[in-house]
Amino acid sequence: MSVSPRTWGQVSVEEALAKRRSIREYADKALTAEEVMQLLWAAQGITLQPQGFRTAPSAGGTYPLEIYAVVQLSGVDGLDPGIYHYEPRDHRLVSKTKGNFGAQLMAAAMDQECVGAAPISLVITAVFERTTSKYGETGVRCVWQETGHAAQNIYLQAVALGLGNVVLGGFNDIEVQRVLRLPDQEKPAYVIPVGVRNS
Q1: pLDDT band at residue 51 under the 50/70/90 scheme
Q2: Which end of the chain is more exposed for a tag (fewer CB within 10 A), N or C?
Q3: What gap in Å lies between CA 155 and CA 21, rounded to an integer?
Q4: How big is the CA angle at 53 (ends 142 and 39), to the nearest 5 degrees?
Q5: Is the full-model pTM beyond 0.70?
Q6: In a domain, 6, yes or no
Q7: Closest CA to 115 of 176, 35, 65
C-alpha cells in the first residue's frame, strides 16, 4: 500500500509541541490508511531534498532504523490485520504476516493495555551494525538518538492528525522479536500504540 505523504498541514509545529502528550486511551474508531502512511513518513520518510534524506537525522546517513505497523482487527480502513513493514524509499507498506497479533504484542509489552486497545502499534527496530560499522561503539549512542528523533516526529505528526500515541520502552525484547519474526541482529527500540484521541 502506498499513499503520497502531505508536506503541509493546518497545525503549526508550535501548536503540536504545546499539545503533545502521551495518550494511552483511544476512541473506538479505525485509522485511515492516509493517517498511517503519514505517521510512517514522519518517522522515516524521504524528504524533499534530491539526495533522499529522511525526516529524522541519521549519523552518517547509515539509517539503522526499521518500522513495522502491527494492525489490529478493524484497526485501519482498507488494511487487513497483520504485521506490515514500512519501506521509506518507495513510501509503502508491505505485508509481512497476516493475522491479529495485537494480543501477542501486548503480552510482549508487559501486558500494557494501551497496546491491546490501540487500532495500530508502530514498532521501531534498529540494526545497530549499520551505524557501528562506521562509528564503532559511538554508533550505539547515535542509534538511540536517532530512535528518539523518529519517535518525536511520530508524536508531533499524531497531534497534527488529531491522534494520540505513547512511546513504550517497557517490553520483552525477545518476545517482541518473536512476534515480529525479526532476525537476531534487529533489536526492538520502541513500541508505539496509536489511536484516535477521545474527544
Answers
A1: confident
A2: C
A3: 8
A4: 85
A5: yes
A6: no
A7: 176
Residue 3 counted as domain residue? no
**Which CATH number covers residue 177?**
3.40.109.10
Give the model's confidence band at 1: pLDDT under 50 very low, under 70 low, under 90 confident, else very high.
low
Q: Identify the pLDDT of residue 27.
A: 95
pLDDT band at 50 (very low <50, low <70, confident <90, very high): confident
Return the pLDDT at 6.
87
Q: Within a domain: residue 86? A: yes
Long-range contacts at 50-59 (CB < 8 A, ≥ 24 apart): 52/89, 54/88, 55/150, 55/153, 56/146, 56/149, 56/150, 56/153, 57/146, 57/149, 58/131, 58/142, 58/146, 59/131, 59/134, 59/135, 59/139, 59/142, 59/143, 59/145, 59/146
Our measurement of the distance from residue 154's CA atom to the centroid of its chain's CA atoms, rounded to an integer in Å, reads 7
- Count of structural domains within the chain: 1
